[in-house]
Amino acid sequence: MNISSKWLRRTPDSLPQEFRSRIRNVAVLVEDMPPNQPLPKSGQQKHLLLGVFHGAPMTKKSAFDLPTGPDHVVLYQKKIEAVCSSEAEVRQQIRLTVIHELGH
Description:
Zincin-like, 3 strands, globular
């Protein structure tokens, strides 16, 4: 399985209109794993960080803010693949993770 750019391009179109109309200047990036994440010790539950939002929430932005570049969502491919057992599940998890991160 792989997070392909085709699936990433289709994700915004699959979002509810309420989200699509408010998303401006947001990039979606893919990395293998979260940086500096320690491996879980034996018997510990794995931390399922599937993605993260970097940027300022819309509720905190002002017309007077200086531009800082696009906000972005980072998806962690190996984590998403670890919780999915098919390509269809990967596509659905990408969509859910993007929605979740945009909610931040």
